[in-house]
Amino acid sequence: MRLLPVGDQALMLDCTDAAEARGWHAALADAADVTLGARTLLVRGDPAEVRRLLASTTPGDAAARELHEVTVPVVYDGPDLAEVAGLTGLTADEVVAAHTATVWDVAFTGFAPGFAYLTGGDPRLHVPRRGTPRSRVPAGAVALAGPYSGVYPRESPGGWQLLGRTDLPVWDLDRDPPSLLQPGTRVRFTVARPGATP
């Protein structure tokens, strides 16, 4: 692991892999202001104090910090569902079945407030990002890119493959914390009928 300064009030832990980053997150989440990345951890605070904290801390077990399970009802009518089927060699129904058959894990958050990168899905669903990103992806869009799945928390540009949509609010400023999908949370996608999502 390397320590990198970020301004004058934070340090970045550049870890060897995602597991090491999650271990540091598990050990520091209750003691410091931290943000988990794919294989990094941003620790905010006076750098000297952060270094002292790191010296007296051992990376923890990320599995021990896993939070509750969230069910995300999805209407699988996304504009890229047929393309994903073609890329994977599956039918559209088989794509949906694969997406809902696995419990996903929130590995880290980023890109936009409340956007969670979900891992642990069926490897058959590993598909590339779109060649040309969309200028507008609606809030609640459920998508795939590489080994990840995600739910767009609000309208934004985006280049992921859109499978469907949910009305479940994954980002709400009136909630504490605002992000429904925190690192360690387990996520289960289910099939919903149009108009039936919460």
Describe the structure.
The structure is a single chain. The protein is α+β, with helices and mostly antiparallel strands. It folds into two domains: 2-63, Gyrase A, domain 2 (2-Layer Sandwich), CATH 3.30.1360; 69-191, Cyclophilin-like (Cyclophilin). 19% of the residues lie in helices and 31% in strands. It is built from four helices and 13 strands. It has helices at 18-28, 47-55, 81-88, 92-101, and strands at residues 2-5, 10-14, 33-36, 40-44, 69-74, 103-109, 116-119, 134-137, 141-145, 148-151, 156-158, 161-165, 186-191. It has a four-stranded antiparallel beta sheet with strand order 1-2-4-3, with helices on one face. A hairpin with a 2-residue loop joins strand 9 and strand 10. It is elongated and about 55 Å long. It starts with a strand and ends in a 7-residue tail after the last strand. 35% of the residues are buried. The mean pLDDT is 90.
Overall tally of domains = 2
Characterize the main sheet: 4 strands, antiparallel
How far the N terminus sits from the C terminus, by CA atoms, comes to 42 Å
Which descriptor suits the 3D outline?
A: elongated
The whole-angstrom Rg is 18 Å
Please count the helical segments: 4
Q: What is the beta-strand fraction?
A: 25-35%
Structural class: alpha+beta
* Low-pLDDT residue spans: none
CATH architecture of the largest domain: Beta Barrel
Fraction in helix: 10-25%
Order of helices and strands: EEHEEHEHHEEEEEEEE
